[in-house]
Amino acid sequence: MIYLTNILSIIIVMIFLLTATDKIIHWNTHIDTIKNYRIVKDSLIKPLTVLMIVAEYFICISLLLMRANYYNLLVFLLLIIVYTVAIVINLFRGNVNISCGCGSILESSNLNFWLVIRNAFLILVYLLVFINSEYTITQLTFYEASFTVFVSICLIMIWAIIKEFIAGKKVLDKILRVFHLGVSK
Amino acid sequence: MWNDFVLVIVLLLLTAELGILYFFLKYNSNFLKQIQSIKGIQLDSLDIGEKAPSFRTFSETGEKVISKEMFSKKRTLILFINTNCPTCKSLLADINSISSDYDINFLLINSDNVSNDDHITKQLDDSIIYIRSNQITSLYFIRNVPHGVLIDESSTIILSNYIKNINVLNNMLLNEKNVRSSMPV
């Protein structure tokens, strides 16, 4: 259990680190995406985005340095619930052809129900880490800690590779259709 | 000790390998996107047989337009125009007859949100739903106007054409009507 808890905990840290950094790097694109949700007033978008990025970094740092506690659990739940409610509102409005603005490996070019399921799954993972928060990475030897870190990175890389592969396949299929080419099976 | 060291090295190599694979896929996907800039190839387009993107908006008369509901009731013709397009102006005089001759929903979408459109509104009868939206025009990847898109009751695009004159629009609807009537019940 100690390995699983630490692997899941590092995965959450890495996901939030990547998404928060991606939002800073692509700041203007992210602001436009939030505008497309048509939920928040234009004047509030920038302060809210800053708040969300700070919250994401807070989760990363506190989870890495302190372990899962009530504070970071509360911030995590608030953040995920806000994101999910925004997605659900736009799903009901039919405004689905917008980027989800999740950032980095969580990014999706349109809104769909799977994003809600994915967020629910993320909450379950975090709760699992929280329940087993007595297991910390400091209890592991150097080699065991390295093992958990590399396994977490590998799992995230596999996720990113699968996403990239599916996206590339879609574009390739479209090109084949444009040129009226078929793929022999 | 030795086994742990080997395991960490193996995981390090696996991470590096996955990293290379990810960046290769990313490079490949960027290359495929670049193909879109080659003249004559439009990958960002909606093909016949694809699902029509859904939207929610208000018409110029203040009526709420929910595309999903509208599409499901009967076939829908969306005609994309622009206030300043001369061909669109020539079409306007005859589109009222189209809307009365065929049992379809008729949506007229103007990609221009700014210019004075009095000459358009004056010519339209009540059966035509007139919307000014650049966003919907982009959503349907329309680059040249006037452009007609015919959508069936299952929200599938069945025809999509550049409308050179009113005859093209008439023939487009007539051919589809003939195909439909010849289909076995």
From TrEMBL, chain A:
GO terms for cellular component: membrane. InterPro entries: Methylamine_util_MauE (IPR009908). GO terms for biological process: methylamine metabolic process. Pfam families: MauE (PF07291). The chain crosses the membrane at residues 6-25, 45-65, 71-92, 113-131, 143-162. It is found in: Membrane. Residues 3-130 form the Methylamine utilisation protein MauE domain. Keywords: Membrane, Transmembrane, Transmembrane helix. It is a multi-pass membrane protein. This is Methylamine utilisation protein MauE domain-containing protein. It comes from Ornithinibacillus bavariensis.
UniProtKB/TrEMBL annotation, chain B:
The keyword Transmembrane helix applies. InterPro entries: Thioredoxin-like_sf (IPR036249), Thioredoxin_domain (IPR013766). SUPFAM superfamilies: Thioredoxin-like. Residues 46-178 form the Thioredoxin domain. Gene3D superfamilies: Glutaredoxin. The chain crosses the membrane at residues 6-25. Keywords: Membrane, Transmembrane, Transmembrane helix. This is Thioredoxin domain-containing protein.
